C-alpha cells in the first residue's frame, strides 16, 4: 500500500538548555538534551508517532483501528489478514466512491499492470464474507464497469 502522508514529528537533540528552548520555540515537537539515552529517545519518538497517527475510522457500525490494525462491526472483532485490512482501509478512505479494479491493483497490491487474475474479486469476496456475516445490509457493493464501493450499512 502506498504511503499518502507521513507523520514524522521533529524531536531536537541539543547540548544546552538555551538550544532546547530555541528548538521548541522553532516548532520542534519535543527536545532532549545531549547526551541522550537511546531508550528515552525511542520512547519519545514512539509517543509522538502514535499521537500523530490518524485515529479510528468509523463508517456506520464498522470501526477500523489504524494503529492496532484491527476492525470491528457492531462491536464484534473481525480478524483480517494484512491484505484484507489494506483493501478495506483503501475502500474506507474513499467511502461512498466507486474504486476501480485497476486502482485497487495499483494502490493495494502495488501492481502497475493487470496480472490477468481475479485476485481483487477473490479478496473482495473474502472480505465481504467476513464483514457482512450475520448482518442484513452488506457494506461492500460492486457494480460491473465501475468497481467497488464501501457503503454505510
Automatic annotation (TrEMBL):
One of its GO terms (biological process) is regulation of DNA-templated transcription. Coiled coil: none annotated. This is DNA-binding response regulator. GO terms for cellular component: cytosol; protein-DNA complex. It comes from the Bacteria. Residues 54-152 bind DNA. InterPro entries: OmpR/PhoB-type_DNA-bd, Sig_transdc_resp-reg_C-effctor, WalR-like, WH-like_DNA-bd_sf. Residues 54-152 form the OmpR/PhoB-type domain. One of its GO terms (molecular function) is phosphorelay response regulator activity.
Amino acid at each position: 500500500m502506498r504511503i499518502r502522508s507521513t507523520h514524522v514529528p521533529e524531536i531536537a537533540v541539543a547540548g544546552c538548555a538555551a538550544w532546547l528552548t530555541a528548538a521548541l520555540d522553532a516548532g520542534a515537537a519535543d527536545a532532549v538534551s545531549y547526551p541522550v539515552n537511546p531508550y528515552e529517545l525511542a520512547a519519545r519518538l514512539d509517543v509522538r508517532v502514535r499521537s500523530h497517527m490518524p485515529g479510528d475510522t468509523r463508517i456506520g457500525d464498522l470501526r477500523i483501528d489504524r494503529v492496532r490494525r484491527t476492525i470491528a462491526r457492531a462491536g464484534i472483532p473481525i480478524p483480517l489478514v494484512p491484505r484484507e485490512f489494506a483493501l478495506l482501509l483503501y475502500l474506507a478512505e474513499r467511502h461512498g466512491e466507486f474504486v476501480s479494479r485497476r486502482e485497487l491493483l495499483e494502490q493495494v497490491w502495488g501492481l502497475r499492470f493487470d496480472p490477468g487474475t481475479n485476485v481483487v474479486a477473490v479478496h473482495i469476496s473474502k472480505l465481504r464474507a467476513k464483514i457482512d456475516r450475520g448482518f442484513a445490509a452488506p457494506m461492500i457493493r460492486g457494480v460491473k464497469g465501475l468497481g467497488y464501493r464501501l457503503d454505510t450499512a
